[in-house]
Write a structure and sequence with these properties.
Elements: E1 4-10, E2 13-18, E3 23-28, E4 33-36, H1 45-52, E5 58-62, H2 67-70, E6 79-81, H3 86-92, H4 95-99, E7 115-116, E8 122-124, E9 129-134, E10 143-147, E11 152-154, E12 163-165, H5 173-184, E13 192-194, E14 201-202, H6 206-218, E15 225-229, E16 232-236, E17 254-256
Parallel strand pairs: 4-5, 5-6, 6-7, 11-13, 12-17
Antiparallel strand pairs: 1-2, 2-3, 3-4, 8-9, 9-10, 10-11, 13-14, 15-16, 16-17
Helix pairs in contact: 5-6
């Protein structure tokens, strides 16, 4: 099996799918490319990009510090992340954690300086300007890249079909709701929602559906359906079937621990 495959999403924007099932995105600018996340670190993503997509220099932008997003960082010379996610990276994104998931080798940890991304920082590559929107919740430094000309928002793990609010680094539901309301201010600036898991994309009602989940949890009116994930009991705001689809047919959900329901 090939470690990576890729597909064109819109002009200059590609989705790269790692054989683990996680995906990430690359935009080809006029003089450099922007890579948004880098999977678990299986194979050599830099080599794959150079052979199959572009020979332009690549800047890596990490949406957050979890193991399935930071794995290929060591292959790049310029890496950015909101440094509020440092504790997440050092707890969940290290070589030891990533290697424990796989029988084959993964890339080592990035040893250079990770450059900080501040809320609303912009990356200008000539034919596109990317605004980094802060969406604290899943992690404290979670960022959503908004590609202004392409009119695409990479929601990633920030807002999806099963957002995890589950450990000491995750926000409580009320704080997460405020982040989503900030993201909603930009909903007229994008037509395409991209994610890193599952179907990889969503309709625009996703955001409103997840905000509704927040409201239901805070009101004590959600489904509160228990499921086991990562050795913990989490609760689905909206119950899902064995294929991870909501029973009511909508898309967008939150899985949370009891201590986050405030």
């Amino acid at each position: 099996m090939n470690t990576f495959t890729h597909e064109l999403i819109k002009e200059n924007l590609y989705r790269i799918i790692e054989k683990s099932g996680v995906c990430f995105y690359i935009f080809i600018g006029e003089d450099r490319a922007l890579l948004f996340d880098s999977g678990y670190g299986l194979g050599n993503i830099r080599e794959y990009i150079e052979k199959n997509i572009t020979d332009k220099p690549v800047t890596l932008i990490l949406s957050h510090g979890h193991l399935d997003h930071v794995g290929g960082a060591a292959l790049f010379d310029e890496v950015y992340m909101n440094r509020d996610d440092d504790p997440v990276l050092f707890s969940f994104g290290t070589y030891e954690v990533r290697q424990s998931r796989f029988d084959e080798p993964v890339q080592p940890d990035y040893k250079g300086e990770i450059k900080n991304i501040r809320p609303y920082d912009e990356f200008d590559v000539g034919n596109e300007t990317v605004v980094m929107l802060p969406v604290k919740g899943h992690t404290p430094g979670m960022m959503v890249p908004l590609l202004k000309k392409t009119r695409a928002a990479i929601f990633g793990d920030a807002c999806g079909v099963g957002v995890l609010l589950f450990n000491e680094f995750s926000s409580c539901v009320s704080e997460y709701r405020e982040s989503l309301l900030t993201l909603k201010k930009y909903e007229n600036d994008y037509d395409l929602i991209l994610r890193n898991h599952g179907t990889f994309c969503s309709e625009k009602d996703l955001l409103d559906n997840v905000i509704e989940c927040c409201d239901l949890i805070l009101a004590g009116k959600d489904d509160h359906h228990p499921v086991e994930r990562m050795g913990k009991i989490l609760y689905e705001a909206k119950q899902r079937d064995e294929k991870e689809n909501r029973i009511d047919g909508k898309f967008g959900d939150i899985l949370y621990t009891e201590d986050k329901a405030r």
